[in-house]
Fold this sequence. Notes:
This protein is an alpha+beta fold. It folds into two domains: 189 residues, Four Helix Bundle (Hemerythrin (Met), subunit A) (Up-down Bundle); 154 residues, Beta-Lactamase, CATH 3.30.450. It contains eleven helices and six strands. Strands 3-2-1-6-5-4 form a six-stranded antiparallel beta sheet, sandwiched between helices. It is elongated. The relative contact order is 0.09.
Amino acid sequence: MQSRAARLILLCLFLAAITTAAFLFWKGDSEASSAALQARTFDALAKTIERSLLDVRAAQRGYAAAGQPGDRWITKVAEGLESVRAGVQTLRAEVKVPEAQAALDVTATAINDFAKSDKRAVDYVRNDQRPLASDVVFGDGLERSEMALASLEQARVAELQAREAAVGIFRSRQVFALTAGAAAAVLAVLLLVPAAKPARVVTPVQLPRAAEPARPPASARELALDDDIVSPPRRIPTREPTLASLAVESQMAAADDSVPATPAASPVPAATNPTDFAGVASLCVDLARVVDTRALPSLLDRTADILDASGIILWIADPDGRELNPIFAQGYPQQLVNRLGTIPRDAENATAAAFRTSLLQTVMADDISGGAIAAPLVTPGGCVGVMAAEVRHDSERQDGKLAAATIVAAQLATLVGPPSARPQARTASGA
Length: 431
């Protein structure tokens, strides 16, 4: 392109294309970053509501625990429900897809039903009818809370998928802007480069050669002599001998010095801690005299001393035997105890295995975590729970500690009672 005006117009168009591509790239990046931030905020709010709902469900289980102050748990459940409802309303205003809106409507309905069942449970607690309150908590309350959690998770997943798709669209716009800008740049460069002039072909002109003087004719003898002089004798080329390659051998000296092997260190036997069976007998006598669950913390402390345990949790099965609930915990901070959830019957851990099989289960210690003992609480009606102890100094490998855990668990089972006794008590009180 030789025209100066055309080249100037093309340059202006190139600058305009590059500017537009840069603006589209910046806009796509801004929108993608904003959408990603909104998605992270939405996800964090949804998970906060889920944790609040789990805390409400855990606090409601305090209704059924004997010796627990009912007003404290009632107030905590009421405050938690208000927080969950406010969070669901805020989340409802943020959703953009119909599937998430429908799921949040189901969540709100389930929370309202949970509040109604909680009101009935509160009435039972205030009338000192804890078995009936336990039925409501582990029946309707558990079902409604599970429904609310499931629909909330469904809304979260649907909304996040839609927001991630929007982020993908914005990123694709960025790629398109870059591609369009690069194409415009290549086109402008190709058009602005001047075309090469064709090379001029020069045809050589042959000048006439000067006429050579005529030679006089020669005789045959002269011609023969002339041929011998002009044509030299033919020589047969000879092949020079090739040189044989010389192989250079190098020998590496073998090291004769050998390092003596260091004998492996023998394993250090674990420190043995003899079991105080006299203390076990005294503890069982005191457990047999328990009439109020407020005495259990001190007895669990003594159990921890005997088993060399850092903490003990009593897991009690619900009336249907589908999951285990933490009723008492000793040796752990209250914040951790409040956040303990339930353990399903078919869970892959030692506590659930001890409940299913009614057999003592152990977890061996390693370099990262300590050992544990899970002793089932067995009654004539079956296994009703598990005493889980986090032990130290390889106590899970000592037969004496395992025997002591079995004895104490058997005595604790008499305090809990079989699950079948709870429906009978409920029917008697209802009559």
